Amino acid sequence: MHEGHHGVISKETRSHASAKRAFVSRSEMMKALYPGLLLVTILVSLLPGQKESLGFDFAVIPMLAGGAYVLWSTLVAVVETKKMTAGVLVVLALAGSGYIGEYLAAAVVAFMMIVGEFLEDITLERTRNAVRELVRLAPDKARVRRGGEYVEVPAEEVRAGDVLLIKPGDRVPVDGVVISGQAALDESSITGESMPVDKSPGARVFAGTINLTGALEVEAEKVGENTTLGRIIGIVYEAQNSKGRSQRTADRFAQFFTPIILGIALLVWFLTHDLFRVMSVLVIACPCALVLATPTAVVASVGNAARRGALIKGGITLEKAGRVSVVCFDKTGTLTQGRPQITEVRPFTVLDQKELIATAAAVEKMSEHPIAKAIVAKASDEGVSVADPEDFSVAFGQGVRGKVESRLVEVGNRRLLEDAGAEVDEKVDTWLAEQEKLGRAALVVMVDGEVVGGIAVADSLRHDAARSLRALRDLGIKKLVMLTGDNSATARAIAAEAGITEVKANLLPEEKLAYVKGLQLKHETVAMVGDGVNDAPALTLADVGIAMGAAGTDVAIESSDIALMADNLTMVADVLALSRKAVGIIQQNIWLFAVAVNVIGVSLASLGILSPIMSAVVHNVASVFVVLNSARLLGFRLGQGRDHQL
């Protein structure tokens, strides 16, 4: 696929693609008719008395027609690859069968080869369609503001900075920011999120998503191949050409396979002088199933995952992910929400909880600190009114203070308490110690120097974290580790809640790298899960780097091996389950349908048990089974990893 500089798919490419689809449709129609015509001529050659009436064996016609097709396709493959391909074996088998007068056998061999290729193409087309659906997400047109009004222009003419109108039912053509309007968007094509996502001014939108309700004005930030959708399309196409270990092994095997089989055929001839057996060996031995074993599974898996918001970068990544033995997690923003939340409100005087929150929020509303925002949000959730403070100030590293209704209100940590010289009651001191032991940020609220209450704040565990970790253990991954730069108390509190027993806290970035490298030296296959920004070095070093919430984040997409578009922790187990399923299917394809069938088939053909016709049938059935087996990955639902052992 060629991409335009500005459009996800340029105008010329779209036109070329349409013409190519029409040409392919006609050629596919001819390809479908060809084996049918061959079958008719083969059946005619079976009619009694046709040799006497025609003066020659009618089977010569389908033999020559089918043989010509096989010969031409083989010559093209040899010229393109500059290697001796498996098709050479078939051509030799056809020539040999014709030489010994087995015209019908040669015709049937050619027919089976063409039918097998046709069936393979049909099944492979299903896997390619899984990827083409991504391309179809890019809209052809866009409504762009020009001179105070919106005009419809080709999508490839949109530039960064343009303002676009997105009406209900429209696909968003760019990555950008909403500047006005409200709407609900279906983002399942990018993030895999099944529920509509509400958008209002300041929210980000992605190319390829669908506006379900409302109208939006969007300022374009990224267009064409630079959008998240464009990047996904590019990486998925690259992934199809990325060869994993199994595929490289199969390619090397196939390269030397043809000379080996020719040697076996010569040996059979030397020992038996039976050209019929030699032809059978040549027909059964084609390594088509072996060549198809890995790429069909990779394309099906990558296409399936991409349509559901998980970007797997090729066969190498897929195979490594299928063998992961250790998963390391960053804490903040990966296992936790990544933002402070109120965990406890404790009055120490006559104030109730709502009054205490209202008092604290009155001074915190002027602060930009994340903890201040959590306190103000709590007041809003409780529905309490919050007064405006006077003489607001920040005590760096301690807290904030200000006058509320002529009374001095201070909110801060132990250092603020000590600096104010306030008398600390035993129950206050005990409460502070308890919260600090739990790894929470413990704040005190003072009014005119008196401690009236305490507020505990912590970064809470994701609601799906414990379930996600259980799913990983169900897959057979027993070693789960938290790597964090946070303090040990906080890290262990979160780990205990999530169900992680191994915690490495107070780590600098280089210490995270050293830990991952240490696991690899013990021959573990390590997956690192993070947000892809501050975890980029560890994601890069790990065998499989998994970035969460990567939609619109270039660093996350580039530094990771697997990019999860949505900020969804359960997808980690799902993608690893898909990878394990793919590795299992690749192994089945190679050893069951390719190697075993070839070894048994060559042995039977050498003994004269398989005729050339039966050899052709067995060979093509094996190849078709490989493709059908790989196509099962198209129906693998991300989510089965939580319900089934693979």
Which class do the helix and strand fractions yield? alpha+beta
Distance between the termini: 34 Å
Number of helices: 23
Q: Major β-sheet, in short? A: 7 strands, mixed
What coarse outline follows from CA principal-axis ratios?
elongated
Q: Regions with pLDDT < 50 over 5+ consecutive residues? A: 1-25, 641-646
Helix content: 40-55%
Counting DSSP E segments of at least 2 residues, the number of strands comes to 22
Keywords:
elongated; disordered C terminus; 23 helices; 19% strand; 646 residues; 53% helix; alpha+beta; seven-stranded mixed β-sheet; disordered N terminus
What's the short version?
The chain has 646 residues and is an alpha+beta fold.
Any overview of this molecule?
The protein has 23 helices and 22 strands. It is an alpha+beta fold and 646 residues long. Strand 20 (526-530), helix 20 (536-541) and strand 21 (544-548) form a beta-alpha-beta unit. It is elongated.
Topology:
Layout: H1 11-45, H2 50-54, H3 60-81, H4 87-99, H5 103-136, E1 141-146, E2 149-154, E3 163-166, E4 175-181, E5 183-186, H6 188-191, E6 197-199, E7 204-205, E8 210-213, E9 216-222, H7 228-241, H8 245-272, H9 275-284, H10 288-307, E10 310-312, H11 314-321, E11 326-330, H12 331-335, E12 336-347, H13 353-364, H14 370-382, E13 390-395, E14 399-404, E15 407-412, H15 414-420, H16 426-437, E16 441-447, E17 450-461, H17 465-474, E18 479-483, H18 488-498, E19 502-504, H19 509-521, E20 526-530, H20 536-541, E21 544-548, H21 554-559, E22 562-564, H22 570-606, H23 612-631
